[in-house]
Amino acid sequence: MRDGYLYLESDRLIKINGLQDQSADGEFINDAVVTFTLYDGKKDNGGSTVSGAVNLPATYIAGSNGNYEVIIPYSVSLTRGTTYWGYVKAVQDGTQWMIELELSADYL
After folding, report:
1. Would you give the end-to-end CA distance of the chain in angstroms?
2. Is 42 helix (H, G, I), strand (E, B) or coil?
3. Are 17 and 66 in contact (CB under 8 A)?
4. What pTM did the predictor assign?
5. Whole-angstrom Cα distance, residue 2 to residue 98?
């Protein structure tokens, strides 16, 4: 499997590795509420959310240093060759972090 791809008609595991708070000497964030939302274009350029892939909850990997995983279900309708944008939002104690991911849709 290739990083940066969403596989058509397949569940897709997205890994968020080493989430850190750079304002706190790079401490790993192990207890945030983390969600993932998929857009059909860049969010700040008018992209729209993709049905079935909005605010999907990510799970913290126990014993890791800031690692989380989220599954995009196979039932999410994607178009082959299209570039999608994933946004990971992490919130902890009133502080928010946003990560932007560029993802292409193709068959495995």
Report:
1. 7
2. coil
3. yes
4. 0.92
5. 23
* Residue 76: C-alpha distances to residues 33, 52, 55, 105 (Å): 23, 6, 13, 11
91 phi/psi in degrees, rounded to 5: -130, 130
pLDDT tens-digit map of 69-103: 999 999 999 999 999 999 999 999 999 999 999 99
Token pair listed for 45: 């350029």
Q: CA–CA separation, 108 vs 91, rounded Å? A: 32
Residue that the structure tokens 């890994």 belong to = 15
Helix count and strand count (H, E) for the chain? 0, 10
Q: What domains can you pick out in the chain, each with its CATH number?
A: 5-106 (2.60.40)
